[in-house]
Design a protein that fits this description.
Aspartate Aminotransferase, domain 1, three-stranded antiparallel β-sheet, 44% helix, globular
């Protein structure tokens, strides 16, 4: 029996699939692929967090079902983090919840608050779950472009005024994946003021709050009145290099937290208790590891920007996140992001994420994840220089710049 399932039918073919398939085939053939594609942190989780996990696992009482809202100690730890980092006081009982990574929490919130016929404003380009969480839930999207030189508030106002029915929510993600764009507290104040007057919820993704290279990114919850309409997702994946642990959080508006909690109570029993205990140790324990991870990403960013420039490909230096959002080399822009990514993989053994995978406004760009060490980044730059030269691209870069990169 052939069946076109409603929700599956609403999901387009995965743009990254062809590149990922090529990457897997190349590795199976023994080729050395330098992979900037997936934002998968490669640093080890700090030892004190792992040790706490082992300690908790050795207690058989932790082997039973957990709590779908998250253990109280972990929710208290999240509230303490918000207090010391953002100056935001949260009620851990009603304004926080633990999720199986922020991605799961986001998707389940979309299911909890939206239905077919509802409209949600989503930035474009964006991390796929920001759009497809609501698509899976049956809602409709109103895309607003984001990026340098774009007046987001004007785009938001246009989207709200021309949406029928009016949107129920707007999604924000700063520091942004994939664009690495950052905003200040004044931006959030504008958003909160506008959305409170319009009766629109705000869903903020702050997964990259601790990977920054300038001023610390703010939380929307620091804005007066934000908790009347806003919920914010955070994660331990990047902050503490714990991607496979699948621990994230939501904090903010009590009604949205309660809706997410009610849905989750039907779907899961929460993360394995020892993982939650270890996550509590991460938030309450020594924080110098965050600075160390941040410094790793900063040094990788600097080497990538400098070495790629010397190879003939200008990469804008990101102010935050573990990504660089990079225009295609002008001489190869006609290929489009998918074909360029496939050709780069095939001929230079360098994998990147095509911008089209993050939305139609991502076309013309690729995303580079800072997940390879500096030696590998320099090797990628050498491969890319040969690749560009072979396609007739002028890669004339001064020997001084190249020697400077080699010595860094």
């Amino acid at each position: 029996m052939t069946e076109e399932f409603y929700r599956i039918k609403r999901l387009p073919p995965y743009v990254f699939a062809e590149v990922n398939s090529m990457k897997a085939a190349a590795r199976a053939a023994g080729e050395d692929i330098i992979d900037f594609g997936m934002g998968n942190p490669d640093s080890a989780t700090p030892a004190h967090i792992v040790e706490k996990l082992v300690e908790a696992v050795n207690d058989p009482r932790t082997h039973r079902y957990s709590n779908s809202r998250g253990i109280p100690g972990l929710r208290r730890a999240l509230a303490s983090y918000y207090d010391r980092r953002f100056g935001v006081g949260l009620d851990f009982e009603t304004e926080t919840i633990v999720t199986l990574g922020s991605k799961e929490g986001f998707a389940n919130l979309a299911m909890a608050i939206s239905a077919p016929g509802d409209v949600v404003v989503v930035p474009n380009p964006s991390y796929p779950i920001h759009a497809y969480g609501f698509i899976i839930a049956g809602a409709s999207l109103r895309h607003v472009p984001v990026g340098p030189g774009i007046d987001f508030m004007a785009e938001l106002d246009r989207a709200v005024r021309y949406s029928v029915p009016a949107p129920i929510a707007v999604v924000l993600n700063f520091p942004a994946n994939p664009t690495a764009q950052v905003v200040d507290l004044a931006f959030y104040e504008e958003v909160v003021d506008y959305c409170r007057r319009a009766g629109i919820y705000v869903i903020s993704d702050l997964a990259y709050a601790e990977i920054y290279f300038g001023d610390p990114p703010p939380s929307i919850l620091a804005v007066k009145g934000a908790r009347d309409i806003a919920i914010e997702f955070t994660s331990l994946s990047k902050t503490y290099s714990m991607p496979g642990w699948r621990i994230g959080f939501a904090a903010g508006n009590k009604d949205l937290i309660a809706a997410l909690a009610r849905l989750k109570s039907y779907l899961d029993y929460g993360a394995f208790t020892p993982v939650q205990v270890a996550a509590t140790a991460a938030l309450n324990g020594p924080q110098d590891c965050i600075d160390e991870f941040r410094d790793v990403y900063r040094r990788r960013r600097d080497v990538l920007v400098d070495s790629f420039a010397a190879a003939g490909w200008d990469v804008p230096s990101p102010e935050a996140t573990m990504f660089a959002w990079t225009p295609l080399p002008p001489a190869m822009a006609h290929l489009g992001s998918v074909e360029f990514s496939k050709l780069l993989l095939k001929e230079a053994n360098v994998a990147v994420s095509p911008g089209l995978g993050f939305g139609e406004y991502g076309e013309g760009y690729v995303r580079l994840a800072l997940v390879e060490n500096r030696h590998r980044i320099r090797q990628a730059a050498r491969n890319i220089k040969k690749f560009l030269t072979s396609h007739g691209v002028n890669t004339a870069a001064s020997r001084d710049a190249a020697s400077k990169v080699g010595a860094s």
